[in-house]
Amino acid sequence: MRSDVHGNDDLSSTLKLMKDDLTNITQEHFSCTQCTPPLQQESLQFYEYDTDVSMGSLTQQDYETQSKDIRKGGTNASLDTSLMLQSDDSQLDVPPTKDTNLPTCLLCVCLSGSVYCEEIDIEAVPPLPKETAYLYARFNKIKRIAASDFADITTLRRIDFSGNRIEEIEDGAFSKLLLLEELSLAENRLVKLPVLPPKLTTFNANQNRIKSRGIKANAFKKLTNLAYLYLGHNALESVPLNLPESLRILHLQYNNITTITDDTFCKSNNTRYIRTRMDEIRMEGNPIVLAKHVNAFSCLRMLPVGTYY
Question: Quick one: DSSP state of residue 120?
Fold first, then answer.
């Protein structure tokens, strides 16, 4: 019986000691709330989302790195600007302005050597990829074509500037375009023609303000491939001189042409001469009466369209 009592006393003493030890361990654990290593304490700050702590040291270092990269890329963006753009998502929704220097193939559409820059309100010829063969820049606000616009683009075969506001074309703007076959400057504000490239087959300058003095005497003489020439709705007083033998279609309607000579289309010293390639001449809307100049059409296979009485 006594042995049982002693046994119970020993078990109670042991349990009490274990309880005391556990209490001491717990107190020591909770009394060391500041024992977390410094690196862990700092790292905890960057996971407290929706607080100002997110702009902590690591984030700051990231922005500084990005700012250095921006400066290396050739811009003058400051760190504050970089921070503002990244911290305020609403800035990303602002549409680009007309003065934004976007790459041409973001501003326009580039497809297999063709560049489409139509109806985007550009005011100058954009920089083109060097392999560009076809440029369509219709219905914009381009006022001037500079000699440097195509200085390095020798692969161009077709250019269309219809429906712009072009008033001036620098000398030599098209001189290096030795492959250019089609050029349209229709619906602009030109008063004179530029020097045209030698392999041109189609030239359209309808609906400008061109007068006869704005076309040099030999402007078309050396264009031995020119087949389609459109100069309607201008202010010409006479038919351009030295038209090439290659010409098939000639539009001169609605100008101010009042006179024509026997050498305009034919050769007065050669009665057997025939213009075999000329298929169409339009001269309606001019003040000239064509019936008074019968000999001027003797070499043509068909009479021009226009007023005869």
Answer: S
